[in-house]
């Protein structure tokens, strides 16, 4: 059996014309929500802070101490506000193996219970973070002497957004009659 590859010879003009056939489509920014843009903005503040830390430490040989603290707090904001994006898109870790073997009625009931548990968890997390802010929110950051409450409010905002998005997802699941757990192929395009 021969393993020789056979290639069809094409001219430079044929290659050039293949690029003319594909007209680039405009960017669709409609799929992004407010939490996506906010997480992106905080990410860039973090990235600039890390770059400034690198530049001052290795180029100027005199690092700014506050850049590390700002980058750390920005990372916290990116994680919690970005988590709202993951809730909206149902991208958090989930185990759907059980749903493959359950009949539709028990799978539907279990999926609804999971939606309710998720809503309750985020609601309770909002309460806990709010209590935490009331107790410790006036503490000062180490190097820049701003209140740490700003960081905790970003965490609170993340949980509020996750709570709202989980309610939105639960309502969509109830209206649709199935969730991503029950039929993942309907969400990723593999279900025909």
TrEMBL record:
Organism from which the protein derives: Bradyrhizobium australiense
Main location: membrane
Protein purpose: Part of the tripartite ATP-independent periplasmic (TRAP) transport system.
Keyword Transport: yes
Family: Belongs to the TRAP transporter small permease family.
GO terms of biological process kind: C4-dicarboxylate transport
Pfam families reported for this sequence: DctQ (PF04290)
Residue ranges of every copy of the Tripartite ATP-independent periplasmic transporters DctQ component domain listed in the record: 46-176
Membrane topology: Multi-pass membrane protein
Subcellular location: Cell inner membrane
Quaternary structure (record): The complex comprises the extracytoplasmic solute receptor protein and the two transmembrane proteins.
One GO MF term: transmembrane transporter activity
Entry keywords, A to Z: Cell inner membrane, Cell membrane, Membrane, Transmembrane, Transmembrane helix, Transport
Keyword Membrane assigned: yes
Gene Ontology CC: plasma membrane
InterPro entries on file: DctQ (IPR055348), TRAP_DctQ (IPR007387)
Spans through the membrane: 37-58, 70-90, 150-171
Protein name: TRAP transporter small permease protein
